[in-house]
Design brief:
There is one protein chain. The chain has a five-stranded mixed beta barrel with strand order 1-2-3-5-4. It has a three-stranded antiparallel β-sheet with strand order 7-6-8. Helix 3 runs antiparallel to helix 4 and helix 4 packs parallel to helix 7. 39% of the residues lie in helices and 21% in strands. It is elongated. The longest helix has 19 residues. The mean pLDDT is 94. The protein is built from eight helices and eight strands, in the order βββββααααβββαααα. The chain starts with 5 loop residues before the first strand and ends with a helix. The relative contact order is 0.11. By secondary structure, the protein is an alpha+beta fold.
Amino acid sequence: MTTPRVYKTQAIVLRRMNLGEADRILTLLTPNLGKMRAIAKGVRRPKSKMGGHLELLSHSALMLARGKNLDIITQSETIDSFLPLRGDLWRASLALYAAELVDQFTPEHVENYPVFRLLLNTLRWLCEAQNGELTLRYFEVNLLGHLGYRPQLHECLICHTPLEPVINFFSASGGGVLCPRCRHQEPLAQPISLNALKVMRFLQDQEYATASRVRLTAELSRELEGLMRHYIRYLLEREVRSAEFLDQLRREG
């Protein structure tokens, strides 16, 4: 069966890079084609009809034509531009962090509809969320689950006994939690408080509508962020650049 030369897909714009005087290469996340790169020709020209439909983080309906190296976007129409993100630097930065995580974790041309749906919903949630950081923790925990890195939070990784309501230890290399008795077998494991463990389990097991009702103290929020960053840094073997910008915004108030 021959592949059609022209095809349609929805897409979220994860990243963009200027090419030549007027073109851009866009990194797109699609529902059924996975992550892909495509060229938007002439999109940087002031009179381009596609420019406003291919903004970073926009959800658009696209028509593409097969190209020799990269496919070419021939038509685009915005489905949702997530306007509340455009006028709020903090919300936009949280959304860019989520998009960068998806970009870093996903290979090209590998379908993963749950990841597409999670990112799309997260952009919607961030437009309305009272606590954007809690939304981001929900996103991180569930993204890792969809990618095969769901952390083990209910029993010790080594002795497999149920975790007791005490301070336990999170192992990034093991992808889960160690009990105090087994902690010495993983010197780099980080302490995880009982409340942090409960919240991570809740985010892992509940729908967003329920999980979003959790109330976090500033201290607990920082602990959860630190644990997730530690785990994500271990998996990616690099820092997430958007996380550094979030830290900068926090410092500047």
